[in-house]
């Protein structure tokens, strides 16, 4: 095997110095080159003729009524058993042993930090204890539990509704952006993303509806969590009856305590079995390849039960690996046990997300391919093996250029330790790290960097200003963002017209705050409804903005190979392609068949429709829709295709003036402030713009992009060519005057 436990450090050091491969950026293209591991390296042989055809098991329906009745009775019985067993499982969780002490500590202290091993029951149990202890006063008050991730918020809410035996969306609900599954007069326990609670401050600055707030997964230190902690610290003195629980994995608890005047830390001792750590002997050039080999190495050599959890960086990677594994597992056929491959990432459709929680049948093995959502937010039972390449995808904002990049970076030591711990819940486990021991001790950061020091702050700055917090420098935070990134975001907001030259929020700024999307998108919509040079296209822009929120899971399979794309798309920009897709789908009367024919995800489009409706409602509430209507009436006859494109392009320029790149010799180069030098960027192969270049069309001198990502190259994604250079100056003269 390629692993040796506890490699001698010194011996390996030179190797790392030679190659530094752990830092090597993984190449997207490599994924397709993965070959089946050969028999020489592994002790199992693939036989190409051994392909197994699976037969679909059809559901057998009961034939007679009486049988149907028996069936129903059985179901009821099972249901009854399930409820008692759910109550039993609640009692075996580590927090249950501390229920009384916890409730006493909460009664005594306004703020309490709760630290416990992942899976000990913090998220699902504590809020129920609070309900049981009367903190909601029979429905008078609510309890909010924040989560950094949407998937966790929805999954946990479903689980808790189940445990409390209520219908999800009534007593127990969740609220994530664009999806509110709560009832105003009924929900007492509300799981929500941290960003959603932040937005509640806008309408209810003292959080009067709530008696308890639990900031969960605080150690993740997302931007919204950090800002929430700052705001809560602010309101606690005059909301003496409000309880604040901060729950965190073992890292960093004292920092939270210090921030809240040395409030007590409650430790829930967890049980955890030992986990053997295995490191690679040498750096692996292609970690995806190594992941696949390792999984099959485990699968063919280790006994069951014992499921595998693999940490990957994102959807693309997960889908790629899942496909390869399906293929290999298929070829292995009966030479190995069945391997159940279940992905989990933020954009995965709900019904598929739930698959990770289904218990693995006997003599089978489950492999869960997860983003770092499985690091602490979700617990999958039965994991015995963890495979960890040690990477994570992170947003990184570079103040000097004003750009946000999506980077794949090595995890911190705290993170990889947390990941390893996931193998030791059911019994002794093993963790395979696809990096060297030397790299662990010498290369990895101790702690992850909090998001606030590495992200674009525009939307939270705008939110704080609209809450009347004008002294941003003195606003108390666990970690302060750099002055340069603060001033960059102020500058950006000024450029968008959300602030005036004195730094005070403008009327437009307040409107932008109302929209449930980034200020940049809100500006696009505002321009579309009101700007004299391009109004009348609000609805088209709303369609596009809604689509841009969901592009990651729009196409079935990879976007590069999507035949549907070419069928629909006669356009030269991703934005117009998205619009055409949505428009065609609308014309098909939101048909599911149409989606299948065009290889588009029906569920994603339904989400887009929901987002679109919410944005339109918001525009309507703000009076923008009416303004747009009157502009539109003048326009109807004159609206040719190219006029429409021109108007839409201008609206996006007004919202994203910092996301423009200019054609250079081999690539595009970003343009922002005249003083900065810019960055060479390449149009991503999935873009329509890339394809029209391949078709021999002349590239546009300027292009607007929605996303910048770094993989093997700096790629820009979701691109909109700017057909006339003069539009830049027309829309954003402050930035583009006489270039
Ligand atoms: O928050 P913490 O990590 O301390 O634990 P939790 O999320 O409350 O999980 C407690 C238990 O509930 C774990 O054993 C999970 O496996 C289980 N659980 C589940 O089976 N399904 C869910 N959707 C969520 C939790
Ligand atoms: Mg939790």
TrEMBL record:
- Annotated compartments: Nucleus
> Entire protein: which part is shown?
159 to 897 of 897
- Residues covered by the Helicase C-terminal domain: 294-468
Q: Which UniProt keywords apply?
A: ATP-binding, Hydrolase, mRNA processing, mRNA splicing, Nucleotide-binding, Nucleus
Q: What is its EC number?
A: 3.6.4.13
Q: Report what the protein is called.
A: RNA helicase
| Top-level division of the source organism's lineage | Eukaryota
Looking at the UniProt record for this protein, which Gene Ontology cellular component terms does it annotate, in alphabetical order? catalytic step 2 spliceosome; U2-type catalytic step 1 spliceosome
